[in-house]
Amino acid sequence: MRGGVRALGTALRPITTTARRLSRGRGLTIIGWHRVDGHSDGLSTGVDDFRRHLDVLDTWGATVLPLDAAVAALAAGTLPDRAVVLTFDDGYASVVETAWPILRERGLPTTLFAVTASLAGDLRFAWDRHEPEHDRLRLARPDELLDAAGEGLDIGSHTVSHPWLPRLTPADLVRELVDSRVSLEELLGRPVTSLAYPTGGWNPAVRAAADAAGYRIAITVDRGLNTVRTPHLSLRRSFVPADPEDLRLILDGAYTVLRPLDSWRSRKGPPW
Ligand SMILES: [Zn+2]
Fold it and tell me: Is the CA virtual torsion 125, 129, 130, 132 positive or negative?
């Protein structure tokens, strides 16, 4: 599948690059990772691959913006050309330990979406349970998040317990959205108005609940370029595969052709 996608992306690159050029100044690419540690494997991106991703952003000419500023500029029509936002989901410790120092050194603003059940003590995600006990699976402690936030890392909510939101009762949906926001606001001492839907699960009812819960920005995993018409509570985002060439395809808009597939997947339910 992946080889086919890449071949398709490469074949479509002249078209997508032209589309990108025509939308000059009006498109926002949001990209994401999960954890950055020793080697690329599953949810992990190796440190060397991560540095290569940042090199690709540089050579491509990306203007990396803070999430809130990028969304404000998108709405105002003042987005710079090749605007990109960097995000991390889940709140793994390797992000604050390894990725954030590299990003800070390069002056790149970044948003981390944390699961707040981890603030109260050890949390291990369902998809990590089959892996042997390893430090790479550790989630950041509250003091680590607070220190990184003090250094400029933007922190948003990834809910309390990372459920598939479209499946929840209305009461549980409100609890996941509101309690996580309040916990982070108490930790950070500032408003928290951004959210990443766990596993990209959303539908119009979930989006309305996010709005009612006080969020102004929410991010899916539906790939493609965000335009002035993209709702701020269902922004598009692509996770970055290990191979830097795949990031180039994302930036050139090649994966936008997969939008219908992503819309279906984001409503179907999680693989676990
Ligand atoms: Zn997640």
Answer: positive
